[in-house]
User: Fold this.
Amino acid sequence: MNSQFPQRSPIALQQVPLLVFGAGAISSAEEHLRALGIARPLVVATRSSRSHAERLHPNAIIDAGIHREPTLEDFHRLLQYAQTVAPDAIVGIGGGSALDVAKLLAALADGSQSLAEVWGIGNLAARRLPLVCIPTTSGTGSEVSPNSILLDEAATAKRAVISPHLVPDAAFIDPELTLSVPPHVTAATGLDALTHCVEAYANNFAHPLVDTWALDGIRHIAGHLVAAVQAPDDIEARTHLALGSLYGGLCLGPVNTAAVHALSYPLGSRHHIAHGHANAVLLPHVLRFNASAAPQRYAAIARALGAPEYASAMDSARAGVAHLYRMIEETGLEMRLSALGVAESEIPSLAAEGLAITRLMRNNPRSMTQRDAEFIYRAAFHGREGE
Ligand SMILES: [Fe+2]
Assistant:
């Protein structure tokens, strides 16, 4: 982990063929759909993105039914709808929830595979429908990633489909669409994006090709998150967050996340704590735990966060954690799991559930025991800044 090139096997970068970034990019999405000759796109939207969805195409079939982190039921309802209306393209516009559903829909609408067949990594055979994604929050980076996450309510677990076929054909990132995002959602989604960057940089599979995105993403988000929370119409701050979110999304395919995401999933599936908020609560505690496994890497993260630097990498890493903790507090997010509906008696089972997500835990620079994971949840339960 401390060497400059910790990952020696080849790295694959599966990119969105067309990426348009900047204020007004949504107009390019309209033009793109027209140029492709799309006649009847199905647009998966959220209630708050409906007005943007309406301008995308004169014959757009809009479903604005996604209003939470999507469940299997949400997906199956939309799959049935898609099979009835037979669109010639799928567009996702909204937060990560709408985009994740749109991506899976584009891959499974032709009925050649069922959802049950494609869970996990690399099980999707193909995607026939064109897929366009337009994020309206700065967080998941789903518009450029090969991941879709759904909530399996029966199993109380988040489940993932990961496949190069889920990378959209085109992504249009327009920071102006994020101006109406309320402060607490700006904070939670921004911290999700920050976590993507941090967990990609401090990762057993970290790679110099991705490190650049990760560190730059940290700088963009840490430098402007509080400003965007405090002044939602600050387009400059919004643009930095959108860039940070994009960089975080670009890290997800080739490297992906680690322990913060693994431990946050049970908080989302059991207590419906928003994904970014759950990550924010855990991030400083996991960083403190991980720091000794890769002090140089965590010192570089601390620098990118804007923390003061010390002669020893470990001291710098610790300063980074303290700096991060204060920054998250400044966004106003509740940092104590005890105040978010979690009972202390749940900690052992939360820890076991998080540790079982081995596809992410294997990426974590320091291996984690049940006892370690419980310690992290306990620190987050009390919201302690740490010793
Ligand atoms: Fe995330």
In short: The mean pLDDT is 94. The chain has two domains: 18-178, 183-382.
